[in-house]
Each structure stands twice: as structure tokens, then as C-alpha cells.
Specification:
- It is a single chain.
- The chain has 16 helices and no strands.
- The protein is mostly helical.
- It has one domain (12-339).
- The chain is globular and about 65 Å long.
- The chain starts with 11 loop residues before the first helix and ends in a 12-residue tail after the last helix.
Length: 407
């Protein structure tokens, strides 16, 4: 078995989890139109709990990567550095997708006004309102201020995660100081919180989004952070118990069985966390499979997959209705399968492009611009008034990078 490094700030095998989860969500959101997905009742198999997997995974990974930044105390610099890093990670793609969606909605309204007989697709009254657009821009749309999901629906969870990021530094300061007994007590408290949240939900299901989604996210995030604390403690007996492929296969099988037979969400939620912990310890077959190029690539573009797919599905639905005057579900079996293949191919290819152009290049460009502005401010003498400061920043020339010597 391949030995895992003792100190890891980044677990590559967990990256693949995000890719698999994002693909399943893409399929689940298309169930109403595509016969093959509908036949296996994918959304009835607790698919919405994949969002909780993302929340727990996020708490685990963020803690692993950033807890040292707040080891002793929170400083203004460390807090700013953390929030800036998370803002750059989630916001550029979010605002680009939101802008594209706003353009599509405007185009739809124009087409329907020019051709009164054409209705591309009905709009939910509150889903695309101007106030909800502003809250989406500010990433606060899921802070219990609306009565429904709005605009790019999957971004509700990004809004909740933003709240978790704002609060994480406070939690991180105390996390390393907790005793093992207190960590276990807080894990139990998270499960009690899940039970209370389920009590508020109709039919005792965790499909909670725009109303109490923030609480759902914070519970999952804290659950993941506490599991990460256990992982970082490197307990020999626990590692021996959970590092094997048998342990991973057993927990995965129990988890799938619970979801397939639609058992209570409260039984499944701790299994999601346990699966992440086992995957973190594993260094065998699962580790090798999850570190292959394809799963890793899907994990890297998973954020794009998650946000992009709803726009693609909206365009496909609108196009079928506009040009064929039908719903996707009314198409022939062959056309339905072909359209499903196109939906998946378009989602993956466009997500790959958006990952490179937005998540990598645009993010890097913003970083450089902000860094250059910081360098420009250092060159400005103290006491300069605000107008002259702006002029100096605008006229600042970035020093040329030294050329590489050719060997």
C-alpha cells in the first residue's frame, strides 16, 4: 500500500469527490426531461445530500489548508488574506455566470415582446426579480431573505459557503485548542443540529436551500472541520482501522444502500463525513483510482460544472420549446438520448473552457492587478491627497520581468 505523507495541506483524492458529485447533480437536475435518468429515479436516491457532501468536504479541506493561518489568533492581515483567497476562488465565475444568465433573460423578454405569440419558457415571478439579482451579486441570496431560489439556482450553496468563510477564522482559532472529548461532543452537537433542521423541513428531508440553507451549510462545514481536526491528530489506531480499501468499500456500500432504500437523512449525513475521513487516510486502490487524470480533471472543473450546467439546460429547454414546440420529455427515445449526450458533452466542454479562462486566467489576472496596485501605493509619499493618489496608481508602470537566460 502506498504510504501517505504525514503532513498534507492538500489531499488530491478528495478533489475527485467533487467531480463525481458535480456530475451526479448535473444528471439529477435533468431528470424531469430525460427518460434514462427518470427510469432510475435518481433524485429519489437522496441526490440532494451531495450538497451536504460538498459542505462537509469544504469544511475539511478549508481547515486543512488554512487552520495554520489562524493558529494563535486572528489578525486583520490573516483575515483579509483568507477572505481574499476565497473570494477569488468563488466570485469571478459566479459573477460571469450571473451576467450570462441576465443576458439570456433579457433576450427572452425581447423575443417575446417582438413576437407576442412566442413564449420561450415561463419565468417564476420572484426567481428573476431585480432585488434577487442584487442579492445574488452580493452573494447573500440564501441568507433567508427570499421565498424561493433565484437566478442561477445552484449558487444558493455558494452564498451559504460565503457565510461559512466569513465565520471560519473565529472557529479556526479555537479548533486546535479543543480537547479530543470536546471535538467528539461538538460532532454530536452537529448531528443534533441536523436533527433539529430536519424537524423544520417537510417530510424530514434535508432538501433545504434558500430559507435555512445557511444553517445546513454551517453544520456541514463545522462537521467537516472537526473531522479534519481528528485527521490532523494522526491517531495511530484510527488510521489503522480506516486506511484500508476494505474500510472504504464497506462505508461506501452502506452509504449507497441507505440512499438507495431511502433511509432517513440523519443516518446518511454522518456516513458522508466518515467516507471523507476514510478517503483521507486511504493509500491503496481507491487512492490510486481517484488520482488518475480523468477523476482529477473532473474534480478541478467541478465548480464550473456545478454553476454552468443550469444555463446549458435552460438553453436546451428553451430551444426545444422555441423551435420544436415540444418539451424534452415529449421527444422520441433516440432524440432524447442524443440530446442527453449533447447536454453532458456541452456541460463538460464549456466547463473545461470556463475553468481555464475564468477560474485560472481571470483569477490570475485579478491577482496581478491588485498586486500591482499595492506596489503602486508603496511608491506614493505619505500625506498624498486622494485625487493625486488615484492618478499615481493609474500612471504606475509595472517593472519589467527579467528575461530568462537561455542555457
Amino acid at each position: 500500500m502506498k504510504k501517505r505523507p504525514a503532513n498534507h495541506n492538500y489531499l488530491t483524492s478528495l478533489t475527485s469527490f467533487r467531480g463525481v458529485g458535480a456530475l451526479l447533480i448535473v444528471l439529477g437536475h435533468a431528470e424531469s426531461g430525460f427518460h434514462i435518468i427518470k427510469a432510475i429515479h435518481l433524485t429519489d436516491r437522496k441526490l440532494y445530500l451531495l450538497v451536504d457532501l460538498f459542505f462537509i468536504l469544504s469544511g475539511f479541506v478549508i481547515t486543512l489548508g488554512y487552520v495554520k493561518l489562524f493558529k494563535e489568533k486572528i489578525t486583520l492581515e490573516s483575515y483579509r488574506k483568507f477572505l481574499w483567497a476565497r473570494f477569488l476562488r468563488i466570485y469571478p465565475l459566479h459573477i460571469v455566470i450571473l451576467s450570462i444568465l441576465a443576458f439570456i433573460i433579457c433576450a427572452k423578454i425581447i423575443v417575446e415582446n417582438i413576437f407576442p405569440g412566442i413564449v420561450v419558457a415561463p419565468l417564476t415571478k420572484n426567481a428573476f426579480s431585480f432585488p434577487s439579482l442584487i442579492s445574488n451579486v452580493l452573494l447573500i441570496q440564501s441568507w433567508h431573505i427570499h421565498q424561493s431560489l433565484s437566478w442561477d439556482y445552484p449558487s444558493w450553496s455558494i452564498s451559504c459557503e460565503w457565510m461559512a468563510y466569513l465565520l471560519f477564522p473565529v472557529f479556526a482559532v479555537f479548533l486546535k485548542k479543543l480537547t479530543r472529548a470536546l471535538v467528539l461532543s461538538l460532532l454530536a452537537f452537529c448531528l443534533i443540529g441536523y436533527a433539529e433542521l430536519l424537524f423544520l423541513s417537510p417530510n424530514w428531508v434535508m432538501d433545504i436551500t434558500y430559507d435555512y440553507g445557511v444553517i445546513r451549510c454551517l453544520l456541514g462545514f463545522c462537521f467537516g472541520a472537526l473531522l479534519c481536526r481528528i485527521y490532523m491528530d494522526e491517531l495511530p489506531r484510527l488510521i489503522t482501522l480506516l486506511k484500508s480499501d476494505t474500510a472504504f468499500a464497506l462505508i461506501a456500500a452502506v452509504l449507497i444502500a441507505c440512499a438507495w432504500f431511502e433511509l432517513n437523512d440523519l443516518l446518511i449525513l454522518p456516513l458522508l463525513g466518515l467516507l471523507i475521513l476514510v478517503a483521507s487516510y486511504n493509500g491503496g486502490f481507491f487512492y490510486r483510482m481517484m488520482n488518475r487524470p480523468l477523476p482529477q480533471y473532473l474534480g478541478k472543473i467541478s465548480y464550473s460544472i456545478y454553476l454552468v450546467h443550469t444555463i446549458i439546460l435552460m438553453v436546451i429547454n428553451g430551444s426545444v420549446k422555441l423551435f420544436l414546440h415540444k418539451q424534452i420529455a415529449d421527444l422520441s427515445a433516440i432524440a432524447n438520448i442524443g440530446l442527453l449526450a449533447f447536454y453532458l458533452a456541452a456541460t463538460l466542454s464549456i466547463s473545461g473552457i470556463s475553468y481555464v479562462l475564468i477560474e485560472v486566467k481571470l483569477q490570475g489576472y485579478i491577482k496581478r492587478i491588485v498586486a500591482d496596485m499595492g506596489e503602486a501605493r508603496k511608491e506614493i509619499p505619505a500625506g498624498t491627497n486622494i485625487i493625486n493618489m488615484r492618478i499615481a496608481v493609474r500612471n504606475y508602470e509595472v517593472p519589467a520581468k527579467p528575461k530568462r537566460a537561455h542555457v
